[in-house]
Specification:
The complex is a heterodimer.
Chain A: E1 7-9, H1 14-24, E2 28-31, H2 37-42, E3 50-53, E4 63-65, E5 69-73, H3 78-83, H4 85-90, H5 92-98, H6 104-109, H7 112-118, H8 125-131, E6 135-140, E7 143-148, H9 149-152, E8 153-155, E9 158-159, E10 166-173, E11 178-184, E12 194-203, E13 206-215, E14 222-223, H10 225-231, H11 238-251, H12 262-283
Parallel strand pairs in A: 1-3, 2-3
Antiparallel strand pairs in A: 4-5, 5-10, 6-7, 6-10, 8-9, 11-12, 12-13, 13-14
Helix pairs in contact in A: 10-11, 11-12
Chain B: H1 8-15, H2 27-31, E1 47-53, E2 59-65, H3 67-71, E3 75-79, H4 81-84, E4 91-93, E5 99-101, E6 107-108, E7 114-120, H5 123-132, E8 134-139, H6 146-149, E9 180-187, H7 189-197, E10 201-212, E11 221-227, E12 232-237, H8 242-253, E13 260-263, H9 279-291, E14 295-298, H10 301-307, E15 310-322, E16 328-340, E17 367-376, E18 382-384, H11 392-410, H12 414-421, E19 430-431, E20 437-438, H13 443-454, H14 456-471, E21 477-487, E22 499-500, E23 503-504, E24 507-513, E25 519-523, H15 532-544, E26 551-555, H16 572-599, E27 606-609, E28 612-615, E29 618-624, H17 625-634, E30 645-650, E31 659-669, E32 675-685, H18 692-711, E33 742-746, H19 764-780, H20 795-804
Parallel strand pairs in B: 1-14, 12-13, 15-18, 16-17, 25-26, 32-33
Antiparallel strand pairs in B: 1-7, 2-6, 2-8, 3-7, 4-5, 9-17, 10-15, 11-12, 11-14, 15-16, 19-20, 21-31, 22-23, 24-25, 24-30, 27-28, 28-29, 31-32
Helix pairs in contact in B: 11-19, 13-14, 15-16, 16-17, 18-19
The chains are: A alpha+beta, B alpha+beta.
The structure holds flavin-adenine dinucleotide (FAD).
């Protein structure tokens, strides 16, 4: 468990980061909390000859909550999310989800930016951000651009971010209605067997909008537009939930691993989604 | 000298002797990060060695090219089997009478096998050197299933087949097939078959006790330092048996035993994983001899999980017969034991399947037969007793499952079935059908206490209601009540039948009383977290009347400690604890003579009283042990040598047989397979209780490891022999989060043959806990037709059980 030799950089500003990235291309990588990257380097699954630590680059550690949107800097840790009361009232699903990530030690180090940029299908925040219709701000030599979370993930560890770009912030439109983040895992610190992020808006007795995303059930997070649509216009009764589950099952593509075979994962995905919908609806 | 305390009660309390929940003296250093583990050993010029390991489970090695590795900065040497061969060290003997490759000699037999040893200036350079070693492999057919191994033409161990194709006997007799290691039998075959054939009721079941791993927090490692000037080898290591290691190192290296010093410093958990001898030890010693510098080797977590000593991997097939009323008449057990590529099982030599023949459990079973076949496969070697005496966890799991299956067959309550079959109090000492003589027990009392405490009847009523509700669609949760009653067999053991590689399994204690009334005692055991420095001082305090706080306990340095066989199999208290008491009694005997002289009375006219000798009938006339100690050194006493020291080597007359009654109440989410342990009650009877707080700690730890094994901890392989659970992401190590609240309780049935009546407790909770957790899961599904499902009961396997019983339709 010893990584291959690497060069370590700790630039003071983004310009410094970008110039190292420019110089070394995909031989260079940024490191935020290091809690996904360092294990992969130690297993020699990631070869990073030039490692750029983002800790001293300022301006990425703020959380800004306004009436209609939330901006979370890339270096905000998962612990900061749990700790932030303004965030907890504006978007309580973030705290509910963050509390189900890893364990306190990891959450003190792991960042939001690292979690969404990593591209590991096991990470919880990508699905969460798709559910919330967030956008990721990235900066490169050509300047800044925003990429919708729902367009960001291409395959395991493959995202729409270019190698020379750095993710600086996550922008979230203020979430409406009821919410739930439901996750089944084998133990503390485990990635999901199946997880569902649900945000539902209720008007009168019926659902006017619903957003559903699933985690660790494909090689990318799955935003299931059809699952959400199945709830809209209904009273979120058993039939509607069944329709949503059926739609979601059509979108996911789990693989067998130590957590269990495909049939089990699909079954659990359905159960977890049902629970998430019911809880979100009860809070809507 | 003045007498510091007055009342007898105060004097007893002041000793902190047996029965006192004395705080662990070890914890001051452990909780402050001041422990001294092997990896803390840092010597001048120390080098670091690490292994090139095989990515394949079965392959021939065509070539090993070390040239590029030797060019890596900081790399000094790369050892292969070719370098060890001239020294005769490319293979080494195993504890089970087999031999094992130190470095791959022409082929590899399991993934992670040691292929070459890279010696470098530090562990970083070693890791880079490993990457640069080029090994050319030719893949061979992989066998991970022991039943297939017994039918396959593929020969795993060519070294065990004669030139003419015949099979020479193995260490334990004739072999049936080239991938077969041994057959071991206990009991009476024909009578057992006859009883079962004619029985009113017979229950049959096959079960797999999966492969798992002890996974101590500290992995295995060592530092070897050969001093070429004085010819002395010092070996620090994570050894559960330092003296045995010294002897083995001497035998295989030819270095005289007095020139070898083995030191086990603080050890971060062992659980059986640190009993055996590993290639890392041999390679470090050789590397130190070759380079003339100290060499350290420390496993990383994956090395530890994948290569050093696994546990279990027993395929067990049972038949149990009974009368219609439930009185058990016979038991038959066959085991196919998967030992991996080499037989490196750590058992007493005469017991290749350990004490599996304790599998009649706590029951009065008149007729029984056990047969075990050991088999080679392409998996890592090992087969250690993970927090249990030799294979006792397997035995107890087997019988406690068979009892449940029989209860189903009889349509009877499993608690009642146990009760009517328990060995009765008046039957002890009891000789079991498979040969062991149980020393003492009172099973009915323990069982009744346990059932009453948890309100067993009430729980069954609640469970029946839950089943009703489930059937009515009111709940998706089922309730399981897990029962287990276990009898352990610990304290190996009597030298007449217990030895490892010819080393008798006695143990020892040596005491020196200092003139001012404090003491040091050294033992042949070594604590790995059990708290020996605390509890052995308590035994001595009660025996010699000096406060435990004034007694230093030292273990683990073979230059100073008396010879002993180490710590595993809950043997420290039964064997070394007995030696401690006996040595203490020798001290006391001499002290009595000194006291009598000082008090000017006859030896027989004084008697021991807590911390002093008093003149019989005149308690105001006394000499404290402190005074006696001073006199022993500083006063000329006619006919008595100066000094106050004693040594005892204790060869136990029998094993000890702790027992216990455990009950687990569990809720199971039928849809997700998620379990929730609502209650866990553990009653342990370990005989005389030395330190109740340490007992409780041991019970908590053992139960937690039991929970792990029952609910998810496994070493799983795919068909290609790749380890699927090589990191702690997939290998389940429970944390405070997964662990329920444990309720502990006890009864006390002392061992009649142990000097202080103590039996040992460290492993009981693991042995009894595994079947208890498993039975809870299985019991939840009993109402729906479940008989048996294999562990580990992780989410998907529980889900599968529910699914197969049609509970998801
Ligand atoms: C034991 C354990 C359990 C875990 N359990 C969970 C879990 O249950 N759920 C979960 O979601 N996660 C889990 N994680 C992962 C954890 O949350 C990580 O911290 C997180 O995935 C990555 O965040 P980081 O800040 O550590 O990123 P790093 O490890 O530093 O980086 C991860 C990747 O993202 C890239 N990156 C990081 N920051 C940026 C940026 N600003 N711009 C562009 N690229 C960037 C890096 O180059 C790297 O490729 C677990 C980790 C551990 C060690």
């Amino acid at each position: 468990m010893i990584p291959a030799a690497f060069e370590y950089y700790r630039p003071k500003d983004m310009a410094g980061v970008l110039s190292i990235l420019e110089e070394h291309g995909d031989d260079a990588r940024v490191m935020a909390g290091g809690h996904s990257l360092i294990p992969m380097m130690k297993l020699r699954m990631a070869d990073v000859p030039h490692l750029i630590d983002l800790q001293d680059v300022g301006g990425m550690s703020d959380i800004a909550v306004t009436a209609d949107s939330i901006r979370i800097g890339a270096m905000v840790t998962q612990h900061d999310i749990i700790d932030h009361d303004g965030l907890a009232s504006a978007a309580p699903i973030l705290r509910e989800a963050a509390l189900q990530i890893a364990d306190p030690q990891v959450r003190y180090m792991g960042t939001v930016g690292g979690n969404v940029a990593n591209g590991d299908p096991g990470n919880d925040m990508p699905g969460l951000m798709q559910c919330l219709d967030a956008a990721f701000t990235v900066v490169g030599a050509e300047g800044e651009r925003d990429i919708p979370a729902r367009d960001f993930y291409e395959a395991a560890y493959m995202t729409a971010r270019e190698d020379e770009e750095v993710l600086t912030a996550v922008m979230i439109p203020a979430p409406q209605g009821g919410y739930a983040y439901e996750k089944q895992k084998r133990k503390i610190g485990d990635y999901a067997t199946a997880a569902a992020a649900v945000q539902i808006v209720k008007d009168g007795g019926s659902c006017v909008s619903a957003s559903i995303a699933m985690t660790n059930l494909s090689d990318t997070p799955i935003y299931s537009e059809d699952a959400g649509a199945a709830l809209v216009g209904t009273s979120v009764d058993d039939a509607a939930i069944k329709a949503a589950i059926a739609a979601m099952l059509g979108d996911i593509d789990p693989t067998e691993d130590n957590r269990g075979p495909v049939a089990f994962k699909k079954h659990v995905a359905g159960v977890i989604l049902r629970r998430a919908i019911e809880r979100a609806w009860s809070r809507a | 000298m003045k007498d510091e305390v007055d009342s007898r009660e105060d004097r007893v309390a002041n000793l902190k002797g047996m029965g006192c929940s004395r705080k662990r003296v070890e914890d001051a250093r452990f909780t402050q990060g001041k422990g001294n583990y092997v990896d803390d050993v840092k010597l001048d010029g120390m080098l670091f060695g690490d292994f090139v390991r095989s990515p394949y489970a079965h392959a021939r090695i065509k070539s090993i090219d070390t040239e590029a590795a030797l060019k890596v900065k900081g790399v000094l040497a790369v050892l292969t089997a070719k370098d060890l061969e001239p020294l005769g060290l490319h293979w080494m003997p195993t504890l089970a009478g087999d031999k094992q490759m130190v470095l791959a000699d022409g082929k590899v037999l399991f993934q992670g096998q040691e292929v070459a040893f890279v010696v470098a200036e530090d562990r970083y350079a070693a890791a880079d050197g490993i990457e640069a070693v080029e090994v050319e492999y030719e893949e061979l057919e992989v066998i991970v299933d022991p039943f297939k191994a017994m039918e396959s033409d593929v020969v795993l161990r060519e070294d065990l087949v004669a030139e003419d194709g015949s099979l020479p006997d193995g260490a334990h007799g004739p072999r049936k097939h080239h991938n077969h290691i041994f057959t071991w039998e206990a009991g009476d075959k024909e009578p057992t078959e006859e009883v079962i054939a004619n029985a009113e009721v017979v229950a049959e079941e096959s079960m797999y006790y999966h492969r798992t791993h002890p996974c101590p927090l500290e992995t295995c490692g060592c530092v070897a330092s050969m001093d070429k000037v004085n010819g002395k080898l010092t070996l620090w290591g994570t050894f559960q048996a330092p003296h045995a290691i010294r002897t083995v190192v001497s035998l295989i290296s030819g270095i005289e035993e007095h020139n070898i010093r083995v030191i086990s410093p603080d050890i971060g958990g062992g659980f059986g994983n640190k009993v055996g001898a590993y290639p890392g030890y041999v390679c470090s010693v050789v590397a130190s001899i070759v380079t003339g510098k100290p060499v350290k080797w420390i496993e990383d977590r994956m090395d530890n999980l994948m290569t050093t000593a696994f546990a279990r991997d027993y395929w067990m097939k049972g038949r149990i017969s009974a009368t219609k009323e439930g009185k058990i008449t016979g038991l038959h057990c066959h085991v196919t034991a998967d030992h991996g590529g080499f037989d490196a099982c750590a058992d007493p030599t005469k017991f290749p399947a350990g004490f599996m023949n304790i599998c009649t459990g706590s029951y009065d079973i008149p007729t029984a037969f056990l047969e075990v076949d050991g088999v080679y496969t392409n998996k890592a070697p090992g087969g250690v007793s993970y927090r249990c005496s030799f294979r006792v966890t397997e035995a107890v799991y087997f019988i406690e499952r068979m009892i449940e299956v029989l209860a189903i067959e009889l349509n009877m309550d499993a608690a009642e079935l146990r009760r009517i079959n328990f060995i009765k109090k008046e039957q002890f000492p009891y000789t079991a059908a498979l040969g062991w003589e149980y020393d003492s027990g009172d099973y009915h009392t323990a069982w009744d206490k346990a059932l009453k405490t948890v309100d067993y009847e009430g729980l069954r009523a609640e469970q029946a209601q839950r089943v009703e509700d489930f059937k009515a669609g009111k709940t998706r949760s089922l309730m399981g009540i897990g029962l287990s009653f276990f009898t352990e067999i610990v304290g190996a053991g009597p030298v007449k039948n217990c030895d490892i590689l010819g080393l008798g399994m006695f143990d020892s204690c040596e005491i020196r009383i200092h003139p001012t009334g404090s003491a040091i005692a050294r033992l042949g055991t070594i604590s790995q977290g059990q708290g020996h420095a605390t509890t052995f001082a308590q035994i001595l305090a009660s025996e010699i009347g000096l406060p435990a706080d004034s007694i230093t306990i030292e273990e683990g340095d073979t230059d100073t400690a008396p010879y002993g066989l180490g710590t595993y199999g809950s043997r420290s208290t039964p064997v070394a604890g007995a030696a401690t008491a006996m040595a203490g009694r020798k001290i006391r005997a001499k002290a009595q003579m000194i006291a009598a002289y000082l008090l000017e009375v006859h030896d027989d006219d004084v008697e021991f009283d807590v911390d002093r000798f008093v003149v019989k009938g005149a308690p105001e006339r006394f000499k404290t042990m402190k005074e006696i100690a001073f006199a022993a050194y500083n006063q000329a006493i006619p006919g008595i040598e100066p000094g106050l020291e004693a040594v005892s080597y204790y060869d136990p007359p029998n094993m000890t047989y702790p027992f216990g009654a455990y009950i687990c109440v569990m809720d199971i989410d039928v849809d997700t397979g998620v379990t929730d342990i609502r209650r866990f009650y553990a009653l342990d009877d370990c005989g005389t209780r030395i330190n109740p707080m340490i007992i409780e700690g041991q019970v908590h730890g053992g139960l937690t490891e039991a929970l792990a094994v029952a609910l998810g901890q496994e070493i799983a392989y795919d068909d290609m022999g790749n380890v699927k659970t090589g990191t702690l992401m997939d290998f389940f190590l429970p944390t405070a989060w997964e662990v329920p609240n444990y309720e502990t309780d006890y009864t006390v049935t002392p061992s009649p043959h142990h000097p202080i009546g103590a039996k040992g407790v460290g492993e009981s909770p693991h042995v009894g806990g595994v079947p208890c957790f498993s039975n809870a899961v299985q019991d939840a599904f009993r109402a729906f037709g479940n008989r048996h499902t294999n562990m580990p009961h992780d989410h998907w396997r529980i889900w599968k059980t529910a699914n197969e019983l049609g509970l998801h339709d």
